[in-house]
Structure formats: C-alpha cells, structure tokens
Amino acid sequence: MVEMGEDAALILEEYIHLLYEAAGIACQYQTGADGRTIAILDRRGWLHSSIFDACSDPEESWKYWVKAISHFSLVDPATSLPFPAPLPRSALPALPTPALQAVFFDWQRNIHSEVHKKKTDENAENARRRTAAYGFESNNDTASAGAMGGGYMPVNFDGPQGNVGDFYGKFIDPVTSRPSGVYTRLVDSFFFWIDSNCDIPGLRNTGFIEPAKCAWIIVKMGSDAVAAQLVVECLQSLYESAGIPCQYQRGDDGQMIAVLDRRGWLHSSIFDTCADPEETWKYWSKAVTLFALVDPATSLPFPSPLPRSAFPTLPIPALQRIYTNWKLQTQVDVQKKKTDKIVRDTMAAYGLQSAVPSSSMVASSYVGGVGATNGGLYNSGAGTGTSAANMNSTIKTVATLATTALGLFGGGGAYTYGN
User: Fold this and answer.
1) Which of 66, 105, 269 lies closest to 187 in space, CA to CA?
2) Helix (H) or strand (E) holding 39
3) Distance of alpha carbon 337 from alpha carbon 105, whole angstroms
4) What is the three-class DSSP state of 247?
C-alpha cells in the first residue's frame, strides 16, 4: 500500500476493481448508491488482497502495516491482546514476487495519468461528499467488535468448496480438447443465467443464445452498446469458420440469424478457451463474480477467483489462427459499418446527398468538393470551408469508434460473449 492524498485515494476507488480482476483477488460486485457496479471485498477477499500487497511490494506493505498497527492499536481477535509493535521487516518477504509485481506495476501505470487528470475541484467536492457517506458508523463498529468476541475463527483462505484450484482442476483435456464436468456445469450456469435474465422483450427463456442476447450480455459486462451490436452481427462467420454447431432462425427483420443452444454454447466456450486462454480466463473470472453464477448440480456458488491454472497454458495454434483471422476481418467490417453510418448521418445533417456509394469514396469526394468555392460531387451549394472542416473532423472519429469496438477483444476481459 502506498500513502496518497485524499483526492487520489478517492479516484483509486474507481480503478481498484481492475487490480482485483488482474490479480485474481476474490471480490464481489454490488450496485453503488450512484447506480454503478462496484467491487467489494469480504474477509476472504481482504485476505487475498493483503497477500497480494505483501508479495508484490513487501517494502511498502511493511510500512503500511507498521502504521496501521500503531495508529489503530489493532487487537489480536484470538487473544484480545494488542499486536506488538513495531512490526519487524523480517515478517514480510525480502523480495517481491516478480509476476505479482508486474501485475501491480501495469495497473499502477494505467491509472497514474487518470489520478492526476481527475484532481479537480469536482473531485474535491466528491471527496467531501464521500467522506461524509463513509463516516465511521456506530453499527459497523459494534458489528466489528462482536466479530472479535468469543468464538472467533480465522477467515478461511479457501472457499466453502475447499481449495479453489482443486475444485476446478483443468477445464480442457490437453489431449482430446474435451471439457471437464466442472467446466461444462460452469458454461451451463452462464447459459441459464443469460437466458433467464435477459430483459429484451421476447428473448427471455427461449432456450437459445441469440445475437441480441450476445450484445446484451456484452453491454452488461461493461462494453459499448453500439460497438457490441456491430460485432455480434459478425458472429455467424465465426461459428461457421470454427465449426461451432449453431442453428438458424428467422429474425424480426426477416433475415436468418445463427443462434446457439446449450451444446453450441459449450462448443463456443471451448473454442474461446483454446483460442485465447488468457483473455477467456479474465472473462470467466468476471462473469463468475459479477453474476454470482451457481453450480446447477449443487446449487452452491462457483468459488472465486477462478485460478489461471484451470485454463490452458497456451492457445492451440490452429484455433488461435481462426480467431485472429476472424477478429481482423471483424475489425474491417465494424469500421466500415461505423464509417458508413457516420458519413450518412453527417451528410444528412449538412443537407447533402444521403445515398453514398462507399465510405472511402464519400470521404475523398467530400474533401475535394464541398470545401471548394465551386462545390463538387456532393456540393451543398454553401461552398464554405467551415462546413468542410466540421465534416472532416466528424469523419475522423471513425478511427476512435473502431478502436472502441476492438476493445471487446481484450484489455479487461470480456471479448468472448457466446461466440
């Protein structure tokens, strides 16, 4: 733990969930007072977090605990005696664990610029407001005191199912690529949750994962709604190139769409796991905690965090190539669709011709025509440089939008969504 100012500490609240997810710290999710989903820690999660701190930065962690013990006069719940001070440096690891240190440094670098950008008057006001909201409540103090009374039991590092690694084992047989029983139940659990909770009219409890449901769950996991819709329109090509068993139904617009039943969803999940195990691990870790998935065979919650060891160490090259090729093609398709839409909407706003032959032709023709005094192919009659500049600026935003769509495929986890 590193000491920081009040404003920076409050900004940290917005990003701490990213550290929990990257480090595999057992957290839970709740809806905050402002309607946003926040990550919280129970006793077990707090233990996991403390262990991560001690192993990723033992020197700073030691300073943190030295101060906590002396400043708050921490009492041993097993003996009711104060913890002796000062805490010796030798109680913490001599050196950090390299892998955990790398996770912490990556996270720290990612939020560093945001912490500085958000030190504004608005955040100062938020600090005062949150300090009042998170004041030391007497009922919380009483609950804590009761927990440290008689019958104290140290928090269990493992969940109710025992050692998490032993519970999950290996999801995919490295020889046959067939799923384990636990993995099949996990995939089924998410299928049941999506099918029974989807709030799109007419799509609840259909027994299938339709493209609209795929887009819905992507958004539930934090992705952009427009980009999600554009990406799921390309799913059928992935199903077909990867050999994922899908069925075809006629959609509301009369077009045939590819849908997945439970078996297709399982095949899709296995493909994701074998094509990109690292990102799929992050995706499933988030799904298990965010939606509190329950084992359909035992009615117990699946333990979290999901161990990385449950997933393949490396991707299967052939499946990785299929996925990479599809992702690149989807990038092109999504960018073209967004470009076409932006160009059409922008030209309509400027009173120009709405039917455009292609994005690239419109962009080049417009730049050469409307900004000129004599107009051009899409001349509106105004012939003003200001209109041309505004139009060009709008067209350039397509690069950012395309990047947003590609964000579904990594960097936080939720790239797989029922492919």
Assistant:
1) 269
2) strand 37-40
3) 37
4) strand
